[in-house]
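Supplementary Note 2. Why include the ligand at all?

Several targets in our set were suspected to adopt different conformations when bound, so apo predictions alone were not considered sufficient. For every target with a known small-molecule partner we therefore ran a joint prediction. The input for fe (ii) ion is given below.
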Amino acid sequence: MDESGFDTMLARLAEKSRDEHYNPYTKFSWPEQVSEDEWWMHPDYLTVAGTGLVEDEKTLKALARSETVNFFSLHVNGIRELMIEVSKRIHTPGYADYNEYLHHFIGEENAHMWFFAEFCYRYTGGIYPEAASPLRRDGFGDEWDDVVVFSRILIFEEIFDYFNSRMGKEPLIPDILREIHAAHHHDESRHVAFGKQLVKRLHERACAAAPERRDDMEKYIKDYMTHSVRSLYNPQSFKDAGLPNPLEVRRKAMAHPVRREFHTKVMARVDRFFTGAGIFSTPWEA
Amino acid sequence: MTASTDTAMDTVLEFLRQCNAEVDTIDWERDLIDARILDSMAFVEFLLVIEEVTGTPVDLATTDVNTLRTLNGISATLTERITARD
Ligand SMILES: [Fe+2]
Ligand SMILES: [Fe+2]
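The joint prediction is reproduced in token form.
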């Protein structure tokens, strides 16, 4: 996309954000309770789907609940860190073109964080804590750190969108959950469109400034994709679903060939983007 | 080292090998992060492996993760945790 194409896209996305702006605090009608007899996620989208590791319907329904909590918690915890990074950059030199849209981004992510957390606190024991690394990540240098931040956001958004776009029209799940997934999907389609173009530009800029780090970056982004997929498998959700050996189930499920195929599907779109943009020299491997 | 500590160490080595195959030739005193066997992302997964093989969660409030940065350190930690458990 050339300069003027990019500007047109930014203007169009900002306009859409303005037109479609909603009040998250009044948008949803929260029911008194959400029945535990219902599937909170379609069983095909549970982390054990296709593995035969868990067969009992009651346990699977419990897992659909705890994996909903995990999924929503991943957004709350993940986007907190990424919003900090975006906030550090807005209205700084080099971001002038993006300021307007970043305002929408931060505003919308703030709304998402609220409704995802609100669901967990209303109907469950609340969000799960973050599985943060005790080690600090080494920086890659200014230009490359920009690529890191927005690539992470993009990967994160694509994973969410894979689930949101499907759960957002899934008749099996309770209305409030379908509405939350659909609302998120709606905003994220704009974020993803913006994110792809931004990452491409930031990557070009970083390559011009410090080309020797290009391969390291490819490895880092791919590792982050692997890490993100693994975060769907939270030992705490297996524990909360009443499974006696959460770590073993997690390990077996993650390594199952059916699941690896699923991981490839979840990542297919973002992987195609990275490869197509020349950011990856080879595709990501699940 | 007892038999169960040996098996535990083997499982950890297998995990580290998947991160970076060079772990097989590395000095057991060498820092695994500096040697690029482990990074901050893989470390999250690594802690779960330690938890599974020892049967006790790694409490980050009371564990000095620096003791887990070398193979000798990991081995000592496994021995300590498994002995305490058995
Ligand atoms: Fe979001
Ligand atoms: Fe987003």
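The mean pLDDT of chain B is 91. The two ends of chain B are 13 Å apart (CA to CA). Comparable summaries for the other entries are listed in the accompanying table.
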